[in-house]
Amino acid sequence: SAIQADEVDVVVVGGGQSGLATAFYLRRAGLVPGRDLVIVDAADRPGGAWPRTWDGLRLFSPAGYSSLPGWVMPPWDDATRGFPPRDHVVDYLTRYEDRYDLKVLRPHRVDSVRRADGDPGGRLLVTAEGLALAARAVVSATGTWDRPFWPTYPGMRTFQGRQLHASDYRVPGELAGQRVVVVGGGNSAAQILAEVSTVAETTWVTPRPPRFLPDDVDGRVLFATARARIQALEQGREHAGVAGLGDIVMVASVKDARERGVLHAQPMFSRLTTDGVAWADGTELECDAVIWCTGFRPALRHLRPLGLRTRGGHIPVGGASGTQALEEPRLHLVGYGDWTGPASATLAGVGPSARAAAAEITGR
Ligand code: FAD
């Protein structure tokens, strides 16, 4: 089937921070956005996943440590000791796009990336509704927000209360006066618990005891540790990983929750009942809602037509950049997590992966 596709040098799928950072380096290597380089995004506004997170989300690092390549995030200063709110990031990403004139095409959800028929060394066809592009190289930077991860527990289907994932949660008011169980041991769970506990009766459950960073330590340490750990592993050394990206940063709201005495985690329940949750020892707790702060998986559905083998939900990557699909060298994956580059699923961490991917694609 012949598709009339526009030929471009590089297509970037996803215009969140990872797509923008990669586009920054592709542009610096001489590609002209809108001509050689086309960025396609499914959303109808800039900012990647950030506009869709809950209203009260705070970054776990100060603005100066949450920057993409080329332009430092403008400072944010208020009583929270400088941890910027979500909207500050949305504003930054919106201006970043403009600043480098990246010409993101939206809204177009890419449904397929595949090889042009009978031309294995040729171009990759990228299609979305109303759009067909034939590219020499494709960067997939679709993040994880579109694939919230729900674990399975017995009773989930018969529980009569409300279940929501952290990705569905917006404001605490929607849970006012209720009995709420918050599941998960990371920053999302801690921040959501902190604000929901101001208006609701909360219980926090985690599969492992949560790890809290010291009060004076923030996301900066997490980036440094993630990089050091990867370097150590590459050099065949052990690394204890004193702090991981999942460790809880004591932002103001979480400290406040600790002061109110609500920051105590219980072990994970073993099942849901019709009106609550139950532990293996027979203890039961009634509740009105369960919030699953159980993370995300890479959003890779659009790559299925390439038929690449996956390992643990990841597409094996390598090359000099560490982002090149091993079975499809014209495809790069940027920003999904440590498997595509140390701390690459963060604002400050994605730069090196983006630079390496752009260098490999352009040979510059
Ligand atoms: P996204 O921001 O998800 O962007 C992907 C883009 O691709 C979206 O715009 C989407 O519309 C688009 N897209 C998806 N599928 C398609 C498709 N098929 N076709 C076209 N477009 C598509 N990081 C920090 O540095 N500091 C923090 O404090 C921090 N806090 C976080 C708190 C939470 C709750 C979460 C979930 C993450 C946090 N992160 C933080 C991590 C990280 O910054 C985000 O996960 C980030 O959004 C990843 O950026 P991305 O560009 O890879 O993906």
From TrEMBL:
Signal peptide: none annotated. Keywords: Monooxygenase, Oxidoreductase. One of its GO terms (molecular function) is monooxygenase activity. Coiled coil: none annotated. InterPro entries: Auxin_biosynth/cation_transpt (IPR050982), FAD/NAD-bd_sf (IPR036188). The keyword Oxidoreductase applies. Pfam families: Pyr_redox_3 (PF13738). SUPFAM superfamilies: FAD/NAD(P)-binding domain. This is ArsO family NAD(P)H-dependent flavin-containing monooxygenase.
